[in-house]
Design a protein that fits this description.
Radius of gyration: 18 Å
Number of helices: 0
Structural class: mainly beta
Number of domains: 2
Order of helices and strands: EEEEEEEEE
Largest sheet: 9 strands, antiparallel
Shape: globular
Number of strands: 9
Helix content: under 10%
Length: 140
Protein backbone atom coordinates (compact mmCIF):
# COMPACT_ATOMS: atom_id res chain seq x y z
CA UNK A 1 0.00 0.00 0.00
CA UNK A 2 1.23 3.47 -0.83
CA UNK A 3 -1.07 5.31 1.50
CA UNK A 4 -4.53 6.39 2.47
CA UNK A 5 -6.45 9.38 3.71
CA UNK A 6 -9.58 9.24 5.82
CA UNK A 7 -11.46 12.32 6.92
CA UNK A 8 -13.44 12.52 10.15
CA UNK A 9 -16.35 10.05 9.81
CA UNK A 10 -18.32 11.86 12.51
CA UNK A 11 -18.82 14.83 10.15
CA UNK A 12 -21.92 15.01 7.93
CA UNK A 13 -19.74 14.60 4.81
CA UNK A 14 -16.62 12.43 4.87
CA UNK A 15 -14.24 10.73 2.46
CA UNK A 16 -11.72 7.91 2.20
CA UNK A 17 -8.95 7.65 -0.40
CA UNK A 18 -6.63 4.64 -0.74
CA UNK A 19 -3.64 4.16 -3.06
CA UNK A 20 -2.05 0.78 -3.65
CA UNK A 21 0.86 -0.34 -5.83
CA UNK A 22 2.22 -3.83 -5.31
CA UNK A 23 2.03 -7.52 -6.03
CA UNK A 24 -1.20 -9.25 -6.95
CA UNK A 25 -1.01 -13.04 -7.08
CA UNK A 26 1.67 -13.62 -9.78
CA UNK A 27 1.48 -10.08 -11.16
CA UNK A 28 1.25 -6.42 -10.21
CA UNK A 29 -1.66 -4.20 -9.30
CA UNK A 30 -2.19 -0.46 -9.01
CA UNK A 31 -5.38 0.75 -7.35
CA UNK A 32 -6.94 4.10 -6.56
CA UNK A 33 -10.04 3.84 -4.36
CA UNK A 34 -12.25 6.85 -3.75
CA UNK A 35 -15.19 6.90 -1.34
CA UNK A 36 -17.49 9.76 -0.48
CA UNK A 37 -20.20 9.44 2.15
CA UNK A 38 -22.81 11.69 3.63
CA UNK A 39 -24.89 11.35 6.73
CA UNK A 40 -28.36 12.85 6.58
CA UNK A 41 -29.46 13.11 10.17
CA UNK A 42 -28.67 10.22 12.47
CA UNK A 43 -30.67 7.58 10.57
CA UNK A 44 -29.50 7.74 6.95
CA UNK A 45 -26.03 7.34 5.42
CA UNK A 46 -25.27 7.30 1.69
CA UNK A 47 -21.86 6.25 0.34
CA UNK A 48 -20.58 6.37 -3.24
CA UNK A 49 -17.42 4.39 -4.01
CA UNK A 50 -15.14 3.73 -6.94
CA UNK A 51 -12.06 1.60 -7.37
CA UNK A 52 -9.80 1.98 -10.41
CA UNK A 53 -7.52 -1.04 -10.85
CA UNK A 54 -4.72 -1.68 -13.35
CA UNK A 55 -3.66 -5.32 -13.17
CA UNK A 56 -0.69 -6.82 -15.04
CA UNK A 57 0.06 -10.56 -15.15
CA UNK A 58 1.15 -13.11 -17.75
CA UNK A 59 1.94 -10.29 -20.22
CA UNK A 60 -1.67 -9.05 -20.00
CA UNK A 61 -2.93 -5.70 -18.77
CA UNK A 62 -6.47 -5.36 -17.47
CA UNK A 63 -8.31 -2.29 -16.24
CA UNK A 64 -10.89 -3.49 -13.74
CA UNK A 65 -13.04 -0.70 -12.37
CA UNK A 66 -15.71 -1.16 -9.72
CA UNK A 67 -18.35 1.42 -8.80
CA UNK A 68 -20.82 1.19 -5.95
CA UNK A 69 -23.45 2.95 -3.93
CA UNK A 70 -24.52 1.98 -0.42
CA UNK A 71 -27.48 3.28 1.56
CA UNK A 72 -27.86 2.49 5.27
CA UNK A 73 -31.03 3.40 7.13
CA UNK A 74 -31.71 2.83 10.82
CA UNK A 75 -35.43 2.87 11.47
CA UNK A 76 -34.91 2.36 15.22
CA UNK A 77 -32.04 1.25 17.44
CA UNK A 78 -33.01 -2.37 16.73
CA UNK A 79 -34.17 -2.25 13.09
CA UNK A 80 -31.72 -1.50 10.28
CA UNK A 81 -31.89 -1.72 6.48
CA UNK A 82 -29.20 -1.41 3.85
CA UNK A 83 -28.89 -1.56 0.09
CA UNK A 84 -25.69 -1.96 -1.90
CA UNK A 85 -25.43 -1.85 -5.69
CA UNK A 86 -22.08 -2.51 -7.40
CA UNK A 87 -21.00 -2.44 -11.05
CA UNK A 88 -17.93 -4.32 -12.33
CA UNK A 89 -16.59 -3.01 -15.66
CA UNK A 90 -14.69 -6.20 -16.58
CA UNK A 91 -17.60 -8.61 -16.24
CA UNK A 92 -20.27 -5.99 -17.08
CA UNK A 93 -22.19 -7.23 -14.03
CA UNK A 94 -24.40 -5.41 -11.57
CA UNK A 95 -24.76 -6.91 -8.10
CA UNK A 96 -27.57 -5.70 -5.84
CA UNK A 97 -27.77 -6.62 -2.19
CA UNK A 98 -30.66 -5.60 0.09
CA UNK A 99 -30.53 -6.44 3.80
CA UNK A 100 -32.97 -6.11 6.68
CA UNK A 101 -31.63 -6.59 10.22
CA UNK A 102 -33.71 -6.96 13.37
CA UNK A 103 -31.78 -7.07 16.65
CA UNK A 104 -34.09 -9.12 18.88
CA UNK A 105 -31.75 -9.03 21.90
CA UNK A 106 -28.13 -7.90 22.43
CA UNK A 107 -25.76 -9.73 20.03
CA UNK A 108 -28.72 -11.68 18.64
CA UNK A 109 -30.00 -10.79 15.17
CA UNK A 110 -32.44 -11.82 12.48
CA UNK A 111 -31.37 -11.01 8.90
CA UNK A 112 -33.20 -11.20 5.59
CA UNK A 113 -30.90 -10.67 2.59
CA UNK A 114 -31.88 -10.47 -1.07
CA UNK A 115 -29.11 -10.76 -3.67
CA UNK A 116 -29.48 -10.15 -7.41
CA UNK A 117 -26.65 -10.47 -9.94
CA UNK A 118 -27.13 -9.72 -13.62
CA UNK A 119 -25.43 -8.64 -16.83
CA UNK A 120 -25.93 -4.93 -17.43
CA UNK A 121 -25.95 -4.97 -21.24
CA UNK A 122 -28.50 -7.75 -21.73
CA UNK A 123 -30.27 -7.51 -18.37
CA UNK A 124 -30.00 -11.30 -18.11
CA UNK A 125 -30.15 -12.60 -14.55
CA UNK A 126 -27.08 -14.56 -13.45
CA UNK A 127 -27.94 -15.31 -9.85
CA UNK A 128 -30.62 -14.54 -7.30
CA UNK A 129 -30.91 -15.56 -3.68
CA UNK A 130 -32.88 -14.90 -0.53
CA UNK A 131 -31.03 -15.72 2.67
CA UNK A 132 -32.45 -15.87 6.19
CA UNK A 133 -30.00 -15.82 9.08
CA UNK A 134 -30.65 -15.97 12.81
CA UNK A 135 -27.96 -15.47 15.44
CA UNK A 136 -28.44 -15.96 19.17
CA UNK A 137 -26.00 -15.29 21.99
CA UNK A 138 -26.07 -17.98 24.66
CA UNK A 139 -24.69 -17.44 28.15
CA UNK A 140 -22.95 -20.41 29.73
Amino acid sequence: MIGFFRSNASLPLFTYVRLYNGTYFAGKKRTVSLNLAGRLGYKLTVQVSSSFNDIAYDNKNISANVYGIRVNYSQTTTIHSSAYVQYNSVSDEMVSNFRFNLIHSPLSDFFIVYLDRRYVTSGESIDQAVVLKVTKLFSL
